Amino acid sequence: GRSRAKRGKREEGRGKGGSENKKAAATNAEVPVPWSRFSAWLECVCVVTFDLELGQAIEVHKLCKTSICYLSFPDSYSGCLGDTQLSFRLRQSVGRSSSWFGHEDAYNRDAPVTLQKEHAHFHGYVYFRQVKDASVKRGYFQKSLVVVSRLPFVNLFHSLLQVIAPEYFEKHEPCLETVCNEIDQWPAPVPGQTLNLPVMGVVMQVRILWMEKLFRTNIILIHFTALIDLHVIRCFQSVLIHVQMLWELMLLGEPVVVMAPSPTVSSETVLALVSAIAPLRYCGDYRPYFTIHDSEFKEYTTRTQAPPNVILGVTNPFFIKTFQCWPHIIRLGDLKMSGDLPKQVKVKKLTFLHKDKAFIKRLLKGIQKKRPSEVQSAILRRHLLEQTESFILPLERYLESLMPLQRSMSPWKTPPQIRSFSQDEFMKTLEQAGPQLTLKGDWTGLYRRFFRSPNFDGWYRLRHREMIQKVECLHLEAICAADLLTWTKDKSEVEIVDLILKLREKLMRARKHQLPVKEELLERLEQSIQTIISSLPEDLQTLLHRQ
């Protein structure tokens, strides 16, 4: 499976399996049934080789091939010798669809928003090896093993690569085929369950969190497991005094460039930033590792319009000049770059809240006392989580006030409407129910700016959809509690048939969208429908039973 391609690239790879038939299967838009379990976790497994004369290339999938090639290798400025791991995220090719599109995905319905599958982007996890090799021209072996998935399970897939990549580099393709077959035996990812995932003699145990709720809201009590276990203190240590400001930038979906000395630092930091506002989902675009070869390079570097809502992690010194007009730049470590930035963190005046000096002092004291990084990370995670919860809780309480009262639900009428969200009305609630007790500052200004961000739009769309489902559930409960048969006694046949058809539609919608109602309730409604049909003349019964 090697060929010469344009740009002088040598390509090899492995998709969902090892034989030619299996490689062909990996390029199909519709995943074949034999690889359905594999596809629940991964889109494909890729091998990318680098030839010092010809460049990097891949032959494994019609999935943004060129982007995967360039994102799978640290650029020459990083100087990565030995083994390096990094992550990337790329936009799905136009016109490509997945087998689970077009209907609500069962996994996403029950998973926390921060762990859901992505519809429009892929996540790539890379294990790159560069070692001296006298048998190779110019003396270096350079190759990357890449797994591509729609799931943002950073730690899980990097752990998987730590198991399989060293073995693959020694034994090559037969090993990779065995791994793909083992993954095809894994159980599907199910929120709330502990799963054992065997591969190459190792059993990885993972638990995907269930969507937990607090005070009838969508605030997840514990938001990250071993699936996304980043040492945030390591990512933020050099900019620790700015952590409050970084949280605000993420909350507001501001354009941010992270300039780092390596793709590992770049990707870990961008992912840590995105996770800083959990359990709120970051709804802007983010690229843990971004190169000049990225398909969105022109889109994200144009100066004819304001920078987009995106976080970019970069290592190439070319970007110092390219992004000098961006409002927010974070510089990490020794970038080995010519030219310089005046500050480690360049931020356009935006901050609304005061620094929590006591908390920063606590973290700095932990560094002085050499407190374990796991403990430091847990302290920082808890602080960020509590801060996000403090911010979101007033919004959740206000949403609750927009819901119609349960006693207003009538089985004989269309359910009442949810009241519209009013920013001004919400602002008035902050005096009594605001988060100002946790941290001082301009909370009103922060909320008003948040309302213009992609994060508010994403959060509100999700919550509004859930509120509509809640109203449907309450209406269903009211219908099931009513004496439907008695209601039909003085009604015409036309009215009764109309009721039956509406009840059937409601029942079908509840099951199709898997509304959170007890199955016994739906069965009771189904029985009521049958009882009403039985009360009608035989010709109408026959007609209704046919439908």
Automatic annotation (TrEMBL):
The keyword Acetylation does not apply. Signal peptide: none annotated. One of its GO terms (cellular component) is recycling endosome. Residues 1-26 are annotated as: Disordered. InterPro entries: cDENN_dom, DENND6, Tripartite_DENN. GO terms for molecular function: guanyl-nucleotide exchange factor activity. Residues 9-23 have a biased composition (Basic and acidic residues). Belongs to the DENND6 family. This is DENN/MADD domain containing 6B.
